[in-house]
Design a protein that fits this description.
alpha/beta; Beta-Lactamase; Alpha-Beta Plaits; TIM Barrel; eight-stranded mixed β-barrel; five-stranded antiparallel beta sheet; 47% helix; 24% strand
C-alpha cells in the first residue's frame, strides 16, 4: 500500500490561507495589544473596506464590543487573566449602513509564557437575531400601536409590584377604555377604529414620562402603570391631562370624530396584595365608571364599589342566562277608544319569568340589557315573538288589532334595523299594518340623521310610528312635523296628577292641541280611575291605556278576555 506523506509546512500554510479566505466567518488576528494585524477576505468584503482601514484597529471595537459596558469589560479582564476561551455577541454596521449581529469566540496564543496574539473567530448570526426579534414582537408587541401588549404588561406589573414592596413606594394601575370604539368599528369600518386607536396612542405617549408605562390592553383599551406616586392626587393630574388630549377631535377622511374615555384605577399596596388582585380591582373600578354619567370620567377602586359591581355582575350573568333560556316573555296591555270603549290596539310589554315563577318588571333589567349591549338582540326577539303570536291569532280567524312594540335608542344605531324588522314580518307573513313601532324623544334626538333615515324606511314599508313619552324630552314641534309620526303618547307622569295639578293639565291640553293640528292620534298612558278618564276625554284625547281597563296580561289571557269575544 502506498504510504501517505505528511503535507509540507509551506504547502500547509498555502492551503490554510485559501481555506481561511473562503470561510464565510470572519477571522481576525491581533497582536499582544489587541491591534489587528490580519483579517481574512470576508472581513474586507463584508465591511467594504481596505487593509489600510482595518489593520492596526482595536479588534474588540472593530467587531462591535461596547467598551462602556462594565459587564463586558469585566468578562474581558477575566479572560485575559485566566486565558480561557471568551464567547460574546456583538453588533456593528457594515456597508450599506446595514446592521449585522456577530457571535464571537476570542482565544489567545502564547509563546514562552508571553502573550503573542489574540485570535477572534466571528460568525454572522443576523438572520437568527432577526428571527428572535420577530418572535419577540409577535409575543410582546401590539402590531397596530407598537405598544407592549397585555402579556408584556403582566410581566412588567409583577416586576413593578416587587419593586414597590422593596422600596416602600406606591403605584397605580389605570385602565383606559375608549368609549364607543365598538360602534365606530361597526358603523364606519375597522380601519376608522384603527385610526382612532393610533391617534389616542400617540397623544397619550406624548404626555407620559419615565415613571409611566403604557400597554395595549384590549381592542378599545389601554393600561398604564404609574410608579412612584404619593397618592391619588398624582394620578388625578395625569388623568386630567389624558382626558383633555383624548377629547381633541380626530381627523378621519376629511371629517372629525370626537371621542371620550373612561378610566378605572386601583392603587398598590392600598387596594391589593398582589398584581392579579390589583388588575381585578382596576377592572371593577372601570366597570363602575362605565355605568356612570358621561360627566364622571374616572373612578378609583373602593371596597364599596367592589361589593356593588360584584352584585351587578351576578345580575348580568343571570340576565345572559335568561336570554339564552328564553325567560323573557311578552305581555299585552289593551288600548281603548275613549269614545266607543272598544279595544283598538295593544302594547307589547316585556317581562322576565324566572324558573321559580317570579316575574321581573322591565325597570329592573332594561337598563342593564342596554349596558350589556343585549337590548338589540332582545328587541328583535320581542318583534319576532309578537309576529309569531299574531300569526297564531290570524290563523285562528280572530279579529286582530295592531300591536305597539317599543324600539330602544341603541337599536336605532344599527343602520340595518329596518331591514331586520321587515325580514321578520315577511318570514311570518305579517302585514305592517298590524305593527306600530314606538320610539322615545331621546331616540330621535340622539342621532337625528340616522333616525330620520331609518324611520323613512319603516314608513315607506307601511309601518305606523308612535312617539312615546312625549313632553319629557327635547323634541320640538318641528321634529314632530319632520318625522311624520302617526301617534303621540302622552307620558304617564302628566296623567298621574292631572286631576289635581293645573300645570300638568295645561301641558296635556297643549300637547293634545299640537297633536290635533298635526293630525296625530293621541294616546294617554297610565289612566287608573274614572276621574282621569273624564278629564282626558273632555280634552279630546282619543285613546287610553291603563289599569282602569286592564294591567298587562299574557297572550292566553288576551285571547280569552278580548279576542274570542269578537271572533
Amino acid at each position: 500500500m502506498q504510504q501517505v506523506q505528511e503535507i509540507h509546512k509551506v504547502e500547509l500554510v498555502d492551503i490554510l490561507e485559501k481555506v481561511v479566505d473562503e470561510m464565510q466567518d470572519w477571522l481576525i488576528i491581533g497582536d499582544q495589544y489587541g491591534k489587528i494585524m490580519y483579517a481574512n477576505s470576508n472581513v474586507y468584503t463584508s465591511c467594504d473596506c481596505t487593509k489600510e482601514e482595518v489593520l492596526g484597529k482595536d479588534m474588540c471595537m472593530f467587531v462591535g464590543v461596547d467598551l462602556s459596558d462594565q459587564v463586558v469589560l469585566n468578562k474581558i479582564n477575566k479572560f485575559l487573566k485566566d486565558g480561557e476561551k471568551f464567547e460574546f455577541v456583538t453588533n456593528r454596521f457594515i456597508k450599506g449602513n446595514k446592521r449585522i449581529y456577530l457571535t464571537n469566540t476570542l482565544t489567545t496564543i502564547w509563546y514562552n509564557n508571553q502573550l503573542e496574539y489574540f485570535v477572534c473567530l466571528s460568525k454572522d448570526i443576523t438572520n437568527t437575531e432577526k428571527l428572535k426579534a420577530e418572535v419577540y414582537r409577535a409575543n410582546y408587541i401590539d402590531p397596530l400601536t407598537n405598544l407592549p401588549n397585555q402579556r408584556f404588561f403582566l410581566q412588567s406589573l409583577y416586576k413593578a409590584v416587587q419593586k414597590v414592596k422593596s422600596s416602600h413606594t406606591q403605584l397605580a394601575v389605570i385602565i383606559v377604555d375608549i368609549r364607543k370604539i365598538g360602534e365606530i368599528n361597526e358603523n364606519y369600518g375597522m380601519n376608522v377604529g384603527d385610526i382612532v386607536i393610533k391617534a389616542v396612542t400617540k397623544r397619550l405617549r406624548n404626555i407620559l414620562n419615565d415613571k409611566q408605562e403604557m400597554f395595549r390592553y384590549g381592542d378599545g383599551s389601554f393600561i398604564i402603570i404609574h410608579q412612584y406616586i404619593t397618592g391619588q392626587e398624582d394620578v388625578e393630574i395625569l388623568l386630567r391631562q389624558m382626558n383633555e388630549k383624548i377629547k381633541e377631535p380626530i381627523s378621519v377622511h376629511n371629517s372629525y370624530l370626537y371621542i371620550e374615555a373612561k378610566e378605572g384605577i386601583a392603587l398598590f399596596p392600598n387596594d391589593a396584595k398582589g398584581a392579579s388582585e390589583l388588575i381585578k380591582n382596576a377592572e371593577i373600578a372601570l366597570a363602575k365608571v362605565k355605568r356612570e354619567k358621561p360627566t364622571i370620567p374616572y373612578i378609583f377602586y373602593t371596597k364599596d364599589i367592589h361589593e356593588e359591581i360584584e352584585s351587578s355582575m351576578l345580575f348580568e350573568a343571570e340576565l345572559k342566562i335568561a336570554v339564552q333560556n328564553e325567560e323573557f316573555v311578552v305581555y299585552y296591555q289593551p288600548f281603548i277608544d275613549l269614545k266607543t270603549n272598544t279595544v283598538v290596539g295593544m302594547e307589547a310589554l316585556l317581562r322576565q319569568i324566572k324558573h321559580n315563577g317570579e316575574m321581573v318588571l322591565p325597570n329592573k333589567f332594561i337598563g342593564v340589557l342596554e349596558q350589556m349591549n343585549l337590548i338589540e338582540k332582545v328587541g328583535i326577539m320581542v318583534i319576532e315573538k309578537v309576529c309569531i303570536q299574531l300569526r297564531r291569532w290570524l290563523d285562528k280567524g280572530y279579529k286582530v288589532v295592531p300591536i305597539s312594540v317599543n324600539l330602544s335608542a341603541l337599536q336605532f344605531k344599527n343602520p340595518n334595523l329596518a331591514k331586520n324588522i321587515i325580514e321578520i314580518l315577511e318570514h311570518y307573513n305579517i302585514k305592517p299594518g298590524y305593527i306600530i313601532l314606538e320610539i322615545t324623544e331621546s331616540t330621535v334626538m340622539e342621532d337625528i340623521g340616522l333616525a330620520h333615515f331609518t324611520l323613512n324606511e319603516l314608513k315607506d314599508y307601511g309601518f305606523c310610528i308612535s312617539i312615546d313619552d312625549f313632553g319629557t324630552g327635547y323634541a320640538s314641534i318641528g321634529y314632530l312635523k319632520k318625522f311624520m309620526f302617526n301617534h303621540l303618547k302622552i307620558d304617564i307622569s302628566f296623567i298621574k296628577e292631572i286631576t289635581k295639578n293645573n300645570q300638568d293639565r295645561a301641558i296635556v291640553e297643549a300637547i293634545i292641541s299640537i297633536a290635533k293640528s298635526l293630525h296625530l292620534t293621541t294616546i294617554a298612558e297610565g289612566i287608573e280611575d274614572e276621574e282621569q278618564l273624564a278629564v282626558m276625554s273632555e280634552m279630546g284625547c282619543e285613546i287610553g291605556q291603563g289599569f282602569l281597563w286592564d294591567k298587562p296580561i299574557s297572550s292566553t289571557q288576551i285571547e280569552e278576555k278580548y279576542l274570542k269575544r269578537n271572533a
